Amino acid sequence: MPVVSYDYELPYSYGPTGDRFPRLTLRIANPSAQGLSVDADAYLDSGAQRSLFDGGIGRAIGIDLLTGSQQEYESTTGSRITGMVHRIHLEHSDLGTFNLEVGFSTVRVTRNLLGRDFFNLIQIGFRERHLALYVTARP
Amino acid sequence: MRAIGFAQGLQEGSQGLGWPALRRPVSLGLFGGAQGSNELDHEILRMRFEQALSRGRSGLGAPGDSPAVVLFPAPRRGGAGVPHRTQEQAWRGDHAEALREFAGQWVVLEGERLIAHGADPALLAQEARARGIEVPYVFFVEAHSDAVVSLGL
């Protein structure tokens, strides 16, 4: 039987309704503009192939969205939105720093999503009943 | 040499505002690696160390065994200086009802202070920096309806 152990147990964090969600609060930094960063929440979404953040977050760290490469993102309804892909630093108080190319939406998205490209950098487990997630900061 | 490991992570404390206790890393390291531990952590470490010694003395190890090495969870801090934002998270949990007033908007929260709110997070971040907040914590307040189940995107 495979046994997996994780380095960190992290509680789900509070969402808009006071409910709790599997999210990480990350420092999102623009590597091209040192010092320009924001802290924001991102949902851990195994259904997302790639990570996608609201474009406003990108602009908040000084990214010129239109200089990135264009990527289409399709939701479960089949509707598509366009994102512009940029490499950023994601930093977590426990897990360390990750360099990742993420899409920044050209329309408002209400949730920043960490997709399987982020999952590819870590090991992660969910324990929904306990509202906790488990992470090891290596693949 | 036999190792005694503690599978449970240390309790970091409840943060006092409705958070479950945040556990420190469960990975095991040699005793002494508890950098940045607070007084509570030290007290827990001390108690566990004494418990382990007590077990060792009371026959946990067989006669002739090498001395046991007591292993403790080693706190590992990856992003030095990056806050957990636990105070803000707790505030959000306690003030979910009040936040509904800002549904559909972005909010900058610093500790328990609501710094700014509006439609554009980039402008809000700029405003927060102008007010001396170097790294603003920005989040979107989703509209809530009991009749709607939310999905990722």
| Alpha-carbon distance between the two ends of chain A | 20 Å
User: How is the quaternary structure best described?
Assistant: heterodimer
Number of strands of chain B: 6
Number of helices of chain B: 4
Shape of chain B: globular
Can you give a write-up of this model?
The complex is a heterodimer of chains A (139) and B (153). Chain A is mainly beta. Chain A has helices at residues 55-60, 116-119; strands at residues 8-11, 13-14, 20-21, 23-29, 37-44, 52-53, 69-74, 80-92, 96-105, 113-114, 123-127, 132-136. Chain A is globular. The mean pLDDT of chain A is 94. With 153 residues, chain B is an alpha+beta fold. Chain B has four helices and six strands, in the order ββαβααββαβ. The longest helix of chain B has 19 residues, at 39-57. Chains A and B meet through strand 1, strand 2, strand 5 and helix 1 of A and helix 2, helix 3, helix 4 and strand 6 of B.
List the helices and strands and how they pair.
The complex is a heterodimer of chains A (139) and B (153).
Chain A: E1 8-11, E2 13-14, E3 20-21, E4 23-29, E5 37-44, E6 52-53, H1 55-60, E7 69-74, E8 80-92, E9 96-105, E10 113-114, H2 116-119, E11 123-127, E12 132-136
Parallel strand pairs in A: 5-10, 6-9
Antiparallel strand pairs in A: 1-12, 2-3, 4-5, 4-8, 7-8, 8-9, 11-12
Chain B: E1 2-4, E2 28-30, H1 39-57, E3 68-73, H2 86-94, H3 96-99, E4 106-110, E5 113-118, H4 121-130, E6 137-140
Parallel strand pairs in B: 1-3
Antiparallel strand pairs in B: 2-3, 4-5, 4-6
Essential attributes:
heterodimer; A: 139 residues; mainly beta; seven-stranded mixed β-sheet; three-stranded antiparallel β-sheet; 47% strand; B: 153 residues; alpha+beta; three-stranded mixed β-sheet; 4 helices; 6 strands; disordered N terminus
Summarize the structure in short.
The complex is a heterodimer of chains A (139) and B (153). Chain A is built from two helices and twelve strands.
